[in-house]
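Case 353 in the screening queue. Each case pairs one protein sequence with one candidate compound; here the compound is S-adenosylmethionine. For every case the pipeline is the same: read the inputs, emit a complex structure as tokens, and attach any notable structural observations.

Predict complex for case 353.
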Amino acid sequence: MAASGKLATFRMPPLPTVGELIKLYNLRAEKQLSQNFLLDLRLTDKIVRQAGNLNNAYVCEVGPGPGGLTRSILNAGAADLLVVEKDSRFIPGLKLLSEAAPGKLRIVHGDILTYRMDRGFPRSISKPWEEDPPNLHIIGNLPFNVSTPLMISWLENIANRTGPFAFGRTQLTLTFQKEVAERLTASTKSRQRSRLSIMAQYLCTVHSRFTIPGRAFVPKPEVDVGVVHFTPLVQPSIQQPFKMVEKVVRNIFQFRRKYCRRGIGMLFPEACRDAFTEELMRKADVEPTLRPTELTIPQVKALVDVYAHMCDRDPLLFGYDFREELRVKHLTKQRGAQTNDLEGSPRSPEQPD
Ligand code: SAM
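Case 353 output:
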């Protein structure tokens, strides 16, 4: 009753401001869902401008929350905005927005990690991969705890042209914790160069656009936030299956301060590690004493291509995971220690079954 009484004072149009909506629905930020809201519409407009011209565009917004960015996307002229929000508390406020922009805002109460975006838009908006990107954009002030796994899964979608990329080279404009934004865009030899840099850059043109100071959010996060724009490349720089690239890159960066041959060696079982590592480095023509952060994408490509060839030669190789070998060794050692304990213990013969 109290809520509907208050609603009457917020007649549409004009809509309640985002701040008023938060008060109206008593929307306290939930730490668990990494909620940090952007209430300054000049900032949300600035994020949306990074996506390019949104006039008549199709847009998917990830985690609209109280709807600041949502308003900016609608104001930019989007024709069809689909928002995916996990937290039910935001749905009534989003419905108000939807009523104010009839036929333009579709609300999905769901989890972006499982949402089938390939079913969310008409097939008619698809563009062939080799052509310009389709008029479909993904925009989001992402929850920090979801951003990296989500980005990795979208990168895999890009490699396989599935999910949001079944429509073509869908562009993304997303916020990340500044440190993650720096890793995504880091070039060779930079301190932030990491697994994420290679995975993103072999598949996309990645641009860091601007930094939003933490104090612009409510509540203020511990860190600043970077806005990053991605356009999938027509031709990925490495043309091997995503999982193959991911495995090699993960191993390379396992020991990021050591020579790259150390991490690369972990691709191979101990018995043949030295010989296979030497063969891989030689055939890829990569200096084994380069640090992982010094490797260029063409060098990583050469390493992945040779590794893929070695996997063709020995089909069991791709399934090898050194951590599994370590785990088995560790368990064997533990069991040995337990057996010794039991055997050595004076009470062991009296242990019940
Ligand atoms: N976009 C709003 C803004 O800029 O003020 C809210 C940003 S807040 C950092 C992240 C939003 O994502 C929250 O509304 C949260 O409920 C939502 N969220 C968190 N995990 C999600 C998930 N897995 N799927 C969809 N939405 C999620």
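Case 353 observations:
- The pocket of S-adenosylmethionine is lined by residues 33-38, 63-66, 68-69, 84-87, 90, 111-113, 141, 143, 146 (CB under 6 Å).
- Residues 4-232 form a domain with the Rossmann fold fold (CATH 3.40.50.150).
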